[in-house]
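Progress note, project year one: complex with pyridine-2,4-dicarboxylic acid.
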Amino acid sequence: MTTAIDTTVFPRLPRTTRRIQTADREVFVSVRIEQPEVALFDNLLSHEECDELIALSRVKLKQSTIVDPQTGKHEVIEDRSSYGTFFNVNETPFIAKLDARIAAVMHLPVENGEGLQILNYKVGGEYKPHFDYFPPELPGSASHIAKGGQRVSTLVVYLNNVEQGGETIFPPLGLAITPKKGSAVYFEYVNEKGEVDPHTLHGGAPVTGGEKWIATKWMRAGKYI
Ligand code: PD2
Ligand code: ZN
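Model obtained:
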């Protein structure tokens, strides 16, 4: 049975939630801050699920791109020195299981999600501070916002323990999150008026030892098309 989700509620993750019972796994909210809403989820993926996602992705990695806010085109740039790939929503039964669990903890329908992105950073790899939303005032954003609305929230799932470096950083908040296999950082950046929050500027600090694997889910305000 699926329960209808009220997508108009803010914050999307209720402030008193400490455990989220998804269809197949209990997830723990171990840390949270407000304004902007940031939360850490423990026990989101099993170690076996992390290993399987890495194995499925390793064979199809390509150099990552970003959306140029002026042109809207995907470009390879130095700010994002990682390799990545993605899975369409519900691409396989395994991905569908993860998409459903991720949607449950993000309190939005699976249909609002973009395909799961997998990123791999080697030593020196980083993702310089950026916004995940499309800056509303820039011309390159319109074509992306047309595909299901503005991005509203992000989940970054850590697929391995990184030897050194590779923290997810939020410079305006003075916050750094150490990657922990199977855990995830969640944040929201669009309020009830549809305004984006620049305090959600964040990045992936350079990896200084070992490598880093993550899975990212970006949610839209409406059904992603
Ligand atoms: O690798 C990260 O920790 C990271 C940091 C910032 C990933 C993303 N953003 C992203 O995929 O949007
Ligand atoms: Zn990001």
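Helices lie at 47-58, 93-106, 142-145.
The chain has a mean pLDDT of 93.
No further modelling is planned for this target in the current period.
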